[in-house]
Amino acid sequence: MKKNIPLIVIALATLGGLAAYFLWRPAPPEPAPISVQTTPSKPLMRQVIEVPPASPPLPALGESDNFMLDALGGLVGNPSLMKLFRTEKIIRNIVVTVDNLPRDRVPINAMPIKPVPGLFLAAGTENAPIIGPQNAARYAPYMKIAEAMEAKKLVELYIRLYPLFQQAYEDLGYPKQYFNDRLLVVIDDLLAAPDINEPVKLVRPNVLYLFADPDLEERSIGQRALMRIGNKNGATIKARLREIKQELTLHMRETKMPN
After folding, report:
1. CA–CA separation, 12 vs 106, rounded Å?
2. Residue 142 lies in a domain
3. Residue 243 lies in a domain
């Protein structure tokens, strides 16, 4: 099995961070193509983040990496865990990862966090493989990042930096759409991942392991990641995502999308 990824920004990028470095399937060398968006007949609504004026002013998106690393370091509070983060294009990579989590795969070269080391651990027999009980332990450092970040402080950072996330999202090919709307879609998709009974049965038709249950294998990459990292880890991520969503609602208002 290929080495893969692993709350807003980081849960989703530690989850996105725990979701694309936990990939079942190889990711393409370039970012996944953006699907064509259709326009519904009734006006679209967006969940607008109330962004206060930044003081001091925010850096330009292309010059934001050091600023972002310092801010994340303050949230994580552990220099050794900060070594798991990639240090270039952090906000752009977070946006690409978040945008792709409800899809089938996440481009590996756009991950904001370094790959989980080691090989995927399967158990059982050759004809009846299962996810190995020791596999969940591989993600322990990434789970420490998720556990270290307080939802309130994480959301406050997200709101402060929101103009940069929005710019990165528009640059990705969504000039008339709102990144926070996409973020809420992604959180809901992740929370919809089913809780599955262990041991989790696999099949190995070729090189990579897949879920034996076709319904599970057809889920989004984000949901597959949550199902793969073990029930305890998955429950921790879901709990943090609920906290983040609750904090986000305190800073949002609904408005019609502009034409």
Report:
1. 12
2. yes
3. yes
Q: Which residues pair with 95 in a beta bridge?
A: none
C-alpha distances in angstroms, 86 versus 5, 13, 114, 151, 169? 12, 11, 6, 22, 19
Residue range 114-154, pLDDT digits in tens: 888 888 899 999 999 999 999 999 999 999 988 888 899 99
What is the widest separation between alpha-carbon atoms in the chain? Answer: 60
Helices 151-160/162-171 angle, 10° precision: 60
How far apart CA 111 and CA 12 sit, in angstroms, is: 11
172 within a domain of the structure (yes/no): yes
Do the beta carbons of residue 1 and residue 119 sit within 8 Å? Answer: yes
Range of the domain at 209: 8-34+46-256
DSSP assigned state of 129: E
189-202 pLDDT, tens per residue? 999 999 999 899 99
Q: Give Cα 131 to chain centroid, integer Å.
A: 22
1 within a domain of the structure (yes/no):
no
For 91, what's the count of Cα atoms within 13 Å in the CB-facing half-sphere?
Answer: 27
142: Cβ contacts below 8 Å, ≥ 6 apart = 6, 14, 17, 18, 84, 113, 116
Contacts of 239 (CB under 8 A, 6+ apart): none
- 25: tokens are 């399937």
Q: In terms of C-beta density within 10 A (0-12 exposed, 13-18 middle, 19 or more buried), how is residue 185 classed?
A: middle
pTM of the entire predicted model = 0.82
| Structural domain total, the chain | 1
The single-letter code of the amino acid at 227 is M
Residue 62 vs residues 9, 16, 23, 65: alpha-carbon distances, Å: 17, 21, 28, 8
Distance CA 184, CA 246 (A): 11
- For the record, the structure tokens of 43 come out as 């006006």
